[in-house]
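Researcher: Before we compare anything, I want clean individual predictions. No alignment, no superposition, just each chain on its own. First chain goes here; please echo the sequence and then give the structure tokens.
Model: Echoing the first chain and its structure:
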Amino acid sequence: MTELSFLPPVNAVLNTVAATLLITGRRFIRQGRVDAHRRVMLGAFAVSSVFLACYVLHKVSRDFENTAFHAEGVAQAAYLLFLFSHVTLAATVPFLAITLIAFGLRGAIHRHRRLARIAWPLWLYVSVTGVMIYFLLYWLNPVLASST
């Protein structure tokens, strides 16, 4: 398969854009700008969807090989705990986001708001920690960083 090593930084940018859109969307709804909120949040979903497609494509291109974090002891344990929280929550975000969009577009605003109180911070956490994991693996990884 084609070399797709350019995808991890692209994915980090997509996660950064998604996080920015999520924050902007929340600001818009707090200002009562419902149409702007809708557009920005649909944009966040689109960007997150492109991220997911690129992430899966990169994984497939590498036969699902993982990039190891080369630390030991407490640093390794902390990274694995951080990664576990990211991956676990990332598995829930698409379902939560689709449900939020469905509630919002159907006009089920009370249900949308109630779910958004839980889903929005999780989605933001996943987007931000995705960028942090990129930097840990590709810029701060002890073995990779020392070999560059």
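Researcher: Okay. Second chain, same rules.
Model: Second chain and its structure:
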Amino acid sequence: MKMFLLISAICLMAVVASAQTNYIRFGVGGGLGLNQYNGSSWSDEQQINNTLDNLTIKSQGLGGGFNINLAFGHMMSKYIGIEVGVNEFIGLNKKTHNTRTTTTGNTSSTATQDEKMSGMMLQLVPTIIITPGLEKINPYARLGMILGILPSQTYGFDATDNTGSGVYKEKNYGGIAAGFTAAGGVDYHLSGKMVLYAEMVFNGITYAPTKGKVTEATADGVDQLPTYTTRDKEWTYEKTYDTKANIPIGSADKRNKVSYNFSNVELNIGIKLNL
């Protein structure tokens, strides 16, 4: 964290140091998320461990989605520069459809459940730019760090069976995320002031929320949240805790710490304006 703050401070000072060599960059893009580390689905992992005293869920791949990015840069020479970016990452839903049929005698019943999971975060990105400094078409590399601010992960499902239907949604949040980024791209100079760019970016970042809450719970269209205690609808994530402890209904529940993988590969396009 101290190293990140130091790099950010250096970048910010450099950005305002000389208006003649500064630029502003605006772009949009989309990315494909990398898989969770253990290679199994969230539902499978939960079912495997539900019978254990300690529930452990491996890292999830939530990096697929869109991003909007704004950055300020300072070229110290035609070959090297530094940049501070702000990215808004908006994740796409990961969907799972489950169907289960139960037969008792001559009677069969079918239950379905549609799950959705997604994540989002605001990212601060200080980086170093390396380029050969060509005039018209100029390739570059960008290397740096990512600090995820206000990250969150949401999960929910719609379920139906022969007895009725229900909706459940929760949000996990708190804490920050940290990682690294590496990009390779090309600048195309339209004029002395305007530059088009396109780039491929790899972001390696994970996020472990510190707390969560239920945001919606209905049964056959009737709101169930008023019947929930604090323990039912709020929780904190802990590295270790006593799973057999009696938590008061007026206090938040406890869950095992879980990590979500926001790593992805992105394609970004945009415009740079030399100031």
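Researcher: What stands out in the second chain?
Model: The longest strand covers residues 137-161. Additionally, The domain at 2-274 is CATH 2.40.160.20 (Porin).
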